[in-house]
Design brief:
By secondary structure, the chain is mainly alpha-helical. The chain is built from five helices and two strands, in the order αβαβααα. The protein has a two-stranded antiparallel sheet. The longest helix is centred in the last third of the chain and has 20 residues.
């Protein structure tokens, strides 16, 4: 993780999860939204938002420290990475951090209900 973080983000430290958004044309996303609204559309390929890299060694350690299962920690890190792909960033300040935490909790609550 440390090597990936240094290579891709220029940060010489390890972390539990990394997210790398892809640059993409928004027109396929617009077409999907139009399809949901019942408007005509063309056949489009699936959209990839980016990459999420999770350190399983860190996941195991954090699950034990927090006191929940590795599965719960996996979902927590996955949701955290996914929110970064959607543009949320806790490193922009306390307000952004609070917003992201609320979104994480909402997503994890939904996952628990599945």
């Amino acid at each position: 993780m440390k090597e990936i973080n240094l290579l891709r983000r220029g940060k010489d430290k390890t972390t539990d999860v990394l997210s790398f958004p892809l640059e993409f044309d928004a027109s396929p996303l617009s077409a999907i939204l139009q399809r949901r609204e019942g408007k005509p559309h063309s056949t489009l390929p699936p959209i990839a938002l980016g990459e999420i890299v999770i350190s399983f060694d860190t996941l195991k350690k954090q699950a034990q420290e927090i006191g929940h299962s590795e599965k719960d920690e996996f979902y927590r890190l996955l949701v955290h990475g996914f929110l970064h792909l959607l543009g949320y960033d806790h490193e922009r300040g306390e307000e952004e951090e609070n917003i992201m935490k609320v979104k994480e909790d909402e997503c994890l609550e939904i996952l628990q209900d599945l």
